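Tokens as discussed.
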């Protein structure tokens, strides 16, 4: 029984040792994109991480690990552009990313990256780190995709607001024109009624009496005026007394016009 326990314990130790040995063999190399090899603190650059040798990689794990903390305590990654294995050597896993340098590596202390419990040594391919003097601050990095989505949403909102403003303006202008047109028609009716001074004009008002009813605050005098015209309109000619009576009723009706 004790011998079986000893062999089990030994197997576990060997597995841990083998796993750690593999972890020690796997390395990460950081290299800059482009010809410029100087990288100053506070500067955003495109770079490449090469992990080798490695075969068991989950893209999402890599992504979450890199985006959740500063890489090797020196780089805050803002965006991961590509993740892939080299076709020519499938033990090389490449990560193309962008980020800001938040600190320079110290030669006296080796840099490591913790991935899935493995402490991977980090090396730098010909990078000239420059510790520039910048005000200490939290580096805020914006995801370009989020900015693009935000810009698109803002553009849509702007279009909708602009459309609403245009429709409201058109509606307001339309209502204003209707009111102005109604005022002009009302003013024309009032002028025609006030200036009626001949039999023809009085009889024309009678023939269009429905159109004139709206201009009176009290239509009783207007009705008396219409009744008298109806009474006289079949006469061949009006007498002087008829003209006076019509004129008097016409004046009484004018006194009750809404807009004087």
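Sequence:
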């Amino acid at each position: 029984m004790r011998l079986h326990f000893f062999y089990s314990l030994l197997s576990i130790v060997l597995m841990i040792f083998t796993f750690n040995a593999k972890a020690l063999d796997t390395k990460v190399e950081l290299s800059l994109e482009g010809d410029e090899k100087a990288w100053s603190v506070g500067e955003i650059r495109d770079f490449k991480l090469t992990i080798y040798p490695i075969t068991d990689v989950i893209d999402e794990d890599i992504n979450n690990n890199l985006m959740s903390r500063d890489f090797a305590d020196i780089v805050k990654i803002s965006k991961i552009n590509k993740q892939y294995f080299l076709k020519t050597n499938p033990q090389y896993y490449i990560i193309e990313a962008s980020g800001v340098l938040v600190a320079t590596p110290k030669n006296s202390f080796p840099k490591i990256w913790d991935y899935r419990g493995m402490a991977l040594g980090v090396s730098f391919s010909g990078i000239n780190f420059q510790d520039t003097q910048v005000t200490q601050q939290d580096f805020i990095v914006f995801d370009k995709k989020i900015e693009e989505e935000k810009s698109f949403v803002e553009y849509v909102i702007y279009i909708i607001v602009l459309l609403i403003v245009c429709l409201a303006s058109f509606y307001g202008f339309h209502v204003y024109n209707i009111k102005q047109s109604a005022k002009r028609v009302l003013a024309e009716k009032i002028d025609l009624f006030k200036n009626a001074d001949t039999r023809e004009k009085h009889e024309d008002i009678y023939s269009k009496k429905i159109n004139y009813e709206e201009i009176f605050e009290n239509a009783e005098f207007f009705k008396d005026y219409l009744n008298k015209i109806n009474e006289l309109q079949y006469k061949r000619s009006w007498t002087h007394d008829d003209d006076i009576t019509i004129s008097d009723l016409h004046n009484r009706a004018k006194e009750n016009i809404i807009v004087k």
